[in-house]
Structure prediction request, 709 residues.
Amino acid sequence: MTEDVIEAPLADLRVDRRIVDRLSARGLVSAAARDFALDAIEPARRWGVWVSRLLTVVGTSLALAGIVYFFAFNWDRIPPLTKLAALAALIAAAVVTVAIVGFGRLVSDAAASAAVMLVGVFLAVFGQIYQTGADAWQLFAGWAALTVVFALLAGSAAAWAVWLAVANVAIVLWWDQTQPWDVTHHAGRSLSLIGFDGAFLAMREILVGRGIAWPAPRWTRVYLALPVLIAVTLLGLNLLDRHRDFGTLARVAAGVVPAVFVAAWLAYRRLWPDVAVLAATAIGAAVLLDFALFDLLTGGGRNSDIGTFFLMGFATLGIFGGAVAWLRAVAREMGA
Amino acid sequence: MTARHSIDAAHLLARWREADLVAAEDLRGVAEAIVAEARHYDPPLYLKILSAIGTFLATAFFLAFLGVSGLISFDSGAGLIGWGLVFLGGAILLSFSLARSTSTEGLSGDLLAQATFAALAVGKVLVVAGAVELLGGSTPWVVTGALAAVTIVTYPVTGSSLDRLLSPYAVACAALVEILSRRSLAIDTDAALMVYFAVVTAVAGTLLLSHRVPVALRPIGLAALGAMGTVVAIVAAGHDAPLSMARHLIDPRPIEAILVVALVGTIAWAAGGLDRLARPPVAAAAVGVVALGFAGAPGVIFALLLLLLGHARHDVPMRVLGILALPGFLVLWYYGRDLTFLAKSAALVGSGLLLLAARAGMTFLGWDREDAA
Prediction:
């Protein structure tokens, strides 16, 4: 029947909505055939599952946001103890929800994330009422410390995502509020973030490699890899800007920048092929290379002339064009 | 045989044949068309981002070169336009060369594409700057007109989907600034904004939902969708919108009404056509959207629109945008001063409860189970 028509050329070829629509638009298949194919690709019942999940997540988010807005409206009129009691009740409700529903479900993920969030709100309100005099970094550090055990127990990628964001803010604020703004400041802050998020990224890969399911969704890798790559790119740009006053920490940082790019390339090209992370790596590396070249040609920005700008225009085209070509070839090889 | 969002081609052909939806003699032609369509390649988002950053930096260097070298006088409008046209002409020639090239991919093809994109960007910047210099920055519609002119001229010949998206979006944004900030239309601002929003919604709907639209026009649809999002963000921010865009309070109701119609239309499209609105689940969804419209939270409807469109088109970046649009809208709305927190709270809790009630209704009726009969 169809076998003689659909042998080699169609092997491993997938048809999505775009292709079905194009076939229909070209008049090659009827409207009935189009509807039939669309239903085969995404059956109506699967739409129902998707819509119900969407309604749960968006509905819960809106209702919770509405509660926050209501507190904002009545803030001054709510007695201090009522504020704290209400927040404590919300935290308890979220924890009880996780306990009842069980781990690994959409509702428990939402509740676990809400609990981690609400602990921070509780601390902020407590600090506001009793004027503890604590710095902002202490609030975030306390928040991260108080919720780390819960995040560990919940085994929820969403709860960890919230926790990591809180911990990252604590690190940044610690550097900004307690350390002098000297030449080591930026390098130290970036190295801390690279080390912290990089360690969690490595842990994530090890856990997934051992078959643990909850950190396995791909977004968790991107969520951890992006801050590392952004921090390393900013660190590199900062080093290029301040290359005359290199301290010890900056020298370490100068070694870390290429090492991180090479490690990311090796990890996501060879060990765990992932074109999205490689793309982020390529973007950071291309930007750094471009600015390093500009820095080299202008002697640290002191000797920029007509020729430099002209040359840099073409060099930039070369660097980014080359990166696009490389990435495209890698993506094709990976089948992405 | 069905994987998420796609189906094995051989299996689909076999099923079409079994259902007698494709004649035996047409099978070969359809199979060849599937192979040809599968070869069509739209660069993934990360390649577009990489390319856009490269173009931005290269454009900045080339403009700096032109400025420092004194080749171009930035005080002469005619000179700027002339040089802009030279760059645009060069970009068009490069585009033709790229189209004729035997290898549009690979290092040489990508370098050529990057150079074309940069030449286009430099040319457009110079032409628009020249038009502003020549006609005066205070003359209404100069920027919009110049941007529209260079976009219309270059759109058919450039193959860059990113340029085809960004240029129409720039035109749409320039028109929005004229309407809201400069009051360049003779009619009432609210009415002008309503017309603008209806037009961009219609453009987005026509170009993104109809499968008969040529692929080359889709970026205009995405640009129109971006313009819709921009208006929703401005409405949500109210008086806090940037560039003094809302010197008076914009009436959000017409925008919300258009959004409701757009979302109902998108639901019908995703379900297979307007006639599907008669089916109970689709009709219930439409009623729910209308009810949501009364809550007065346009950002929520727009985020749902993006999520639905992204899911139906199997477009991951659009779904991510939809996910990000929701908290983005909530933050904008939080800081907007045009409503009290009580009114905002009521709208959000009302919308949330409505969606959760709909979820409960789906469970009750068994519409949320894939294995249900």
About this structure: The radius of gyration of chain B is 24 Å.
